[in-house]
Write a structure and sequence with these properties.
Elements: H1 2-14, H2 18-31, H3 33-43, E1 50-54, H4 60-68, E2 71-75, H5 79-88, H6 90-94, E3 98-101, E4 115-121, H7 130-140, E5 141-152, H8 160-169, E6 172-180, E7 190-197
Parallel strand pairs: 1-2, 1-4, 2-3, 4-5
Antiparallel strand pairs: 5-7, 6-7
Helix pairs in contact: 1-2, 3-4
Bound molecules: S-adenosylmethionine (SAM).
S-adenosylmethionine binds near residues 15, 36, 55, 105 and 127.
């Protein structure tokens, strides 16, 4: 029974696929929109910044990032979510401000030191190897580049101080953690980590 529930949740939210994935995409676009937009506002990319959005799902934060920056790349392993994000962001893609690419946090496929800002919303809990993913994000960020990660606090794989220590160990400085309550009704508390690539 537990494995059936787990499989349903994975198909809906973890690695969305098929009709359940599309349903999950609709639910995430509604339920997580405030956190997605909050993360982009906190990361505050400038027009000329190159922004990497990890695990954008249906693309709400991706659109918000591409409205601020002309060089946004969404790294998303799920074909169903890439398709949803492509539809949501079609005008921004047509204007050349945004592209979607298959990949994961640990394998973004981006060149070294090529990115100014990395934003990850609600997928840290799905990274199979958090230190490996942080090392990859450190590799692609230029020195001085900014990292902003947020996830539902109750789903974090470790407590926030332990996560901050991992971010620090990956080579980041100015590591800060805090929590935030999204204004959406019944939305779970968000845990946030910000850091600067040293
Ligand atoms: C819970 S959804 C969150 C989507 C969106 N950011 C939001 O908050 O609504 C998790 C997303 O992360 C993607 N994902 C799963 N494993 C990942 C990984 N290892 N690296 C990056 N993204 C991943 C999934 O395909 C899915 O689109």
């Amino acid at each position: 029974m537990e494995s059936i529930t787990r499989r349903l949740l994975t198909n809906c939210f973890g690695r969305p696929s098929g009709p359940l994935g599309r349903l999950g995409g609709v639910l995430m676009a509604l339920g997580n929109a405030a956190t997605e937009r909050h993360a982009v506002a906190l990361a505050a990319p400038a027009e000329q910044d190159v922004v990497l959005v990890i695990g954008p799902g249906p693309g709400v934060g991706l659109a918000a990032a591409a409205e601020r920056s002309a060089h946004v790349v969404g790294i998303e392993p799920s074909e169903a979510m890439r398709a949803m994000a492509r539809r949501r962001c079609a005008p921004l893609i047509a204007r050349g401000r945004l592209r979607l690419s298959p990949g994961t946090a640990a394998r973004t496929g981006q060149p070294d030191a090529s990115v100014d800002v990395v934003i990850s919303v609600n997928n840290l809990q799905l990274w199979p190897d958090v230190p490996a993913a942080l090392a990859e994000l450190h590799r692609v960020l230029r020195p001085g580049g900014r990292l902003l990660i947020t996830a539902h606090e109750k789903l974090l794989p470790t407590h926030l101080p332990a996560l901050a220590a991992m971010v620090h160990a990956a080579g980041f400085g100015s590591v800060r953690t805090w929590t935030w309550q999204p204004p959406t009704r019944m939305a779970p508390t968000a845990a946030l980590v910000s850091a600067v690539r040293v």
